[in-house]
Every structure is written in structure tokens, then in C-alpha cells.
């Protein structure tokens, strides 16, 4: 169902975003490949390549966003894991048959025109889990 | 410095471990490839393949272990990210030159006879970060 880990999402406070970009780029040596404001998800997102995987820094656009609430509750840090698939519709149908609660029953637009959907963490041991179908595959 | 995400570590309470194994294997469809008690780290660890990446469930062996304390404070869920390298000694030296605080200044034995070292989360935006050099590469 999944080909690889697409990315690991890291929640970053807006005031720390430039420092965290410098950390991943200049200290950990990852290549910054994309930066995008995703209004629908209320985040500024910054993608780094690690081989065929990515790290995605997400910083909230405002205090009422999900990521801002996450940071207020948990502090910054690991936020979600995303698995990559070439058939997100099929994967969502399979998960539903297997009794998984989905936040997104239908895929929606994600970063770089990917199609994405989130699984409810109550079905995944509190791990916020995303499915991602890249735009080009 | 890093070739890919080696694995994402997920902290699991001992009483939930079998249910979480069933989740990753039977619901998310990942292949269970390895299971090991790592006394030095105080965990039972279970590895699943996702392409060339892995998910590692870690369950504490006792209440005084680091992972037990993590779960007591944060609840179960995302615990650490591990990057894969073919030269962990070189990577550790590079990170030290760049001012990163290391939990392990020298690599030690990890799962499946890998060599591993942890970076201090104070240097990585609260994200517990591991370097992994697999035994066979």
C-alpha cells in the first residue's frame, strides 16, 4: 500500500522558523527544495530532501490553526508521519474497510499539488498519520 | 551526510504493543521484519519495512527507562527520527564542528547490529534525532 515514508512533519513556532530552516539546511545538511504557504492547512511549509524522503517544517499562519493548537499543547517538535502511495483513493478505501477512522475521507490538495489525506490519530496509537500521493509519479 | 530517513521511532506502552504491532502489520500493511530486546536502551523494539525506510515501535522494559518516562510525560506516539548514514563517525564529527550537542559522542550498538548515536533535542528544535549506520551497506 505504501512505497516509502514520504516525509516527517515537524511543528515549528513562527518565531523559530528561520532558525529551524538554518538547522536542517546548514547543520544537518539537508537540501531545501520547496517552500509554500498552504492556506487550507493554515501553515507555512518548508520541504527538505533526505534521499527520496523529506522533512517538512510546518509553521502556523495564525493562533486558531491546528498546528498552533498542537504547539500550544505539546510544544514544537514531531507532528506527523506521511506515507507515500501511488493510489491514495485505493489506500483510503482499504483503510476504511479495515475500520480506520479518517479525518479526510476524500483526498485533498497538499503541498506541491500532491493529494493528501489524514488518518485520525485515535486509530493509529496517537500518531497523526498522513497519506500522500505525489503529483508526479 | 544522510542518505535517507532510516526510521521513525514510535513509543508504545507495553500493554499496547501487540495491538500496535497488529495495526502496523495488518491495517497499515507494513512488513514486520525484526524484533529485538535492546537491554542497553531499555526497550523491546519491533521493526517494519516501508520501502527502504522503517517504522520502529519501541516499548519500555521497565518504568525507569527513558521511553517509559517519555510516555509518562507525553503519552504514546512519535518519539524520534533516525537518519541513515554510511559514515556515522564522520557525521558525528561534522555535527560537533557545527556546534550540535550530542547525547552520544561515540556511536554505540543499536538494533540489528547497527551503530547509532543520538543528538540532544536541545540542538534540534526538541526533535529527538538519531543517526544510524546499518551493519550491512
Automatic annotation (TrEMBL), chains A, B:
Q: Which residues form a coiled coil?
A: none
Annotated ranges, domain VOC: 4-134
Q: Which InterPro entries match?
A: Glyas_Bleomycin-R_OHBP_Dase, MeMalonyl-CoA_epimerase, MMCE/EMCE_epimerase, VOC_core
Entry's transmembrane regions: none
Q: What domain of life does the UniProt record list for this protein's source?
A: Bacteria
Q: Does the keyword Metal-binding apply?
A: yes
Cited Gene3D superfamilies: 2,3-Dihydroxybiphenyl 1,2-Dioxygenase, domain 1
Q: Which NCBIfam families match?
A: metmalonyl_epim (TIGR03081)
The name this protein goes by in its record: Methylmalonyl-CoA epimerase
Species source reads Patulibacter brassicae
Amino acid at each position: 500500500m505504501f512505497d516509502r515514508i514520504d516525509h516527517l512533519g515537524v511543528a515549528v513556532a513562527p518565531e523559530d522558523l528561520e532558525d529551524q530552516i538554518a538547522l536542517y539546511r546548514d547543520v544537518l545538511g539537508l537540501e531545501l527544495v520547496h517552500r509554500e504557504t498552504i492556506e487550507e492547512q493554515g501553515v507555512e511549509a518548508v520541504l527538505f530532501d533526505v534521499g527520496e524522503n523529506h522533512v517538512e517544517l510546518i509553521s502556523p499562519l495564525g493562533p486558531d490553526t491546528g498546528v498552533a493548537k498542537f504547539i500550544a499543547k505539546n510544544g514544537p517538535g514531531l507532528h506527523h508521519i506521511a506515507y507515500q502511495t501511488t493510489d491514495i483513493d485505493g489506500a483510503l478505501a482499504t483503510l476504511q474497510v479495515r475500520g480506520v477512522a479518517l479525518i479526510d475521507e476524500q483526498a485533498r490538495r497538499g503541498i506541491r499539488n500532491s493529494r493528501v489525506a489524514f488518518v485520525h490519530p485515535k486509530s493509529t496509537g496517537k500518531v497523526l498519520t498522513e497519506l500522500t500521493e505525489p503529483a508526479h509519479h
